[in-house]
Amino acid sequence: xxxxxxxxxxxxxxxxxxxxxxxxxxxxxxxxxxxxxxxxxxxxxxxxxxxxxxxxxxxxxxxxxxxxxxxxxxxxxxxxxxxxxxxxxxxxxxxxxxxxxxxxxxxxxxxxxxxxxxxxxxxxxxxxxxxxxxxxxxxxxxxxxxxxxxxxxxxxxxxxxxxxxxxxxxxxxxxxxxxxxxxxxxxxxxxxxxxxxxxxxxxxxxxxxxxxxxxxxxxxxxxxxxxxxxxxxxxxxxxxxxxxxxxxxxxxxxxxxxxxxxxxxxxxxxxxxxxxxxxxxxxxxxxxxxxxxxxxxxxxxxxxxxxxxxxxxxxxxxxxxxxxxxxxxxxxxxxxxxxxxxxxxxxxxxxxxxxxxxxxxxxxxxxxxxxxxxxxxxxxxxxxxxxxxxxxxxxxxxxxxxxxxxxxxxxxxxxxxxxx
DNA sequence: TCTGGGGTCCTAGGACCC
DNA sequence: TCTGGGGTCCTAGGACCC
Length: 420
Fold this sequence. Notes:
CATH superfamily of one domain: DNA polymerase, Y-family, little finger domain
Largest sheet: 5 strands, mixed
């Protein structure tokens, strides 16, 4: 019984370093959209005390003064690097669950008999480093929740191979005793408060509570966590997660928006992007929601947040239908007199692209199936948008401030790295 | 001056049914 | 005058994750 978790070290920062070897040993941070907050830090940056999610403007001065390097986020690049890493992993094991852009769970159950899993993982780690330049850590344990603990042990014990296996009861209990309960996967801020009040402060204490009791006093979710900590597998490798249940496109604005005429084309851009994602998933939606809100941080200014959901009588993935619904949702929630800081669109209630559900009030013979049309548009827009809808803003996708982006080294011919 | 984006799952409570 | 009990389905919101 063994699973592994492979986790890329400070992923975005590591990606930036791959093509900038001059940044070796230099602290690196990567910022969110609008260069708002820090979303990735290299080990050196963590050592300088740069916290996860801190607003950039608060640490900018001291970080740069200490010689740090900063990048705006470049998700095209990170996404491509991620798929390179995942492809390698897929070659190693029969089953893999890509859990996030920088993490994957591997099913090692069938390999356990024929391989030394520790050596196997070290080998895998070496090849990933050699082929992509990305350093990873590997945690091996009987359950997903324990692989997370194993990964943390790599850091706590400063294990040079970056691979750690928890297999005996002793090893597991020892690791749990050294893990604060808030570091357990599935235990967030609220639960930590509750557990601490019940005098449960480390993972071992949590594991030693009767799961039934946990279920009664907390939830079924935490009960599963407890069982997983005890080595009982409750969460399996999900290698078929592709069917999304919701698609969101949202952005904070680099400059506040006060005017509906500016907001409309931006929301149209979001709607267009969301529709593309939906077609990519081979799904249709019958629910479109739009939200807009002011900044919760400008507490001296009037606050407002509005959202509206439009139900569609027929499921669709046609951009034109979704644009229409987005506009229909946006107009009634817009109120003038506010500085809007963020907007977004959510698509929900999915059904498969292939099944057709006609509305009771619509003529089923109406030639509404314009799938081909959208296919052509997607094809033309595949790499760089070339065809826009009239309601979009073509000059600015969203009012963003971002000016420290690295080149798209691996996905654009014009931005390939050049060596002298 | 400046504070991310995109997801999942679970639960409580309301609406509705017989 | 007197107003049940048991069930399903749906939704909004909370908590969590990276």
